[in-house]
Amino acid sequence: MSRILILLGGLVLGGVTQTLAADTCLGCHEKETPAAVAQWRGSAHAASVGCADCHGSNHDKIVAGTSRVEAKVCGRCHDKAYHEHVTSRHGMGLHSGWGCTRAMEKRDPRECRFCHEEGSTLPKSTVHCARFLMQSSEMGEIGCNRCHQVESSCAACHANHLTSLEPLRRSEICATCHMGPDHPQWEMWQTSRHGVLNATVGEEAGPSCQNCHMPKGSHDVSFGITMTSGMDLLPESTRKSRRAEMLGICTQCHSRAFSEREFSRNDAVRDQSTALVARAAEVIRTLDDRKLLEPSPEQRPAHPLGGKALVLDNQMLYENLSRAERLFFKMKKYDLAKAVKGAYHQNPAYTHWYGNAELKLTLAEIESEAALLNRVSGRQAGTADRRQEDGFVGQEQRLQELKRRFERGGMSAEEYAAEKARVLERLRNEPRN
Q1: Could you identify which of 160, 163, 189, 293 might form a hypothetical disulfide with 322, taking C-beta atoms 3.0 to 4.6 angstroms apart as the criterion?
Q2: At 21, is the pLDDT very low, low, confident or very high (cuts 50, 70, 90)?
Q3: Half-sphere exposure of 417 (CA within 13 A, CB side)
Q4: Average pLDDT of the residues in 79-95
Q5: What is the model's pTM?
Q6: Where are the domains of the chain?
């Protein structure tokens, strides 16, 4: 009877505040949302958890969709699972941009203000990723936050009213979000030897996502992961403990020596892949130093976090870009993930053809684009006056390029001083006809 007697306050009908029993909720919702009622009746919650326990008592807010059942509501009863969740990668889903820099070794402490009030560990906003901020509200809701709301909504994985754990033990539950060009873990796993054995023989032969990343029902999905979502390495001490965690999973089926060899090779693929991306980034930064990007960062709408500056990190946008940057976005956001995560998920096709080959092909395109821009820029300058290419004007442009490169950290103070001295020496010797 306790669930029937739960009071719902705050419903105003004809200007009079009414207090309604839970059976009134059921009376309407058996007609309006019969499936939800049936799921609740068949759930573990039906024995002791009524509607107001989760949804609150303000019916107007419930109808308006402004009284969401957030993860902290579930945490009142599911304390252990809640705290595992909020400290894991899922627990920073909405703040996967600036927020997750707290896990980076060389983070800027000033960035904390993007997510937190001074002295508080509670997020002050729902979204900080620059890509979220550039989208329409509609695209943000279905194209971004439908997955990233995992931070604040247990229902992102668990159904709203079901409490059965069977769907949560299957890798398909992960596929809604962990798929696509930027993080195709589902496709990688499904077509790997692990995934094929899981589908054909069962978990005793091929592990599921949960077996490796949520062992024993843990809600810490960061278990065993040594990188951020942008492929930046975590601090060494954290990596060491995380790697030990994952080796503990792998050695349930494989020898330790075999598992360590696999990780060593995959780590090398990660380093080689990120080096290709770094090489491409330097090409584009040099183009920006020479003012050859079109449109230039100064000509674009301001980046919501970076302003009128070139942004090539994990906050890079995919609008108002030059062609070279568009190619770099694909390389960094799509190809890198396929190569690196494909290796760790034991999928040769994703590692090589979808990942490594595309990284190298795209780098070749970027370098070719840069060569063309440099060549055209040089010809145009030289057509009117050869001195603009090699003489006084050209050296002035070179000084400005060096200054921009130094200011962005692309060269040391010693390198900057030495190269600047060489350019000034050429200027002093340049005839001024």
Answers
A1: 293
A2: very low
A3: 3
A4: 86
A5: 0.79
A6: 1-67, 69-163, 169-258, 385-433
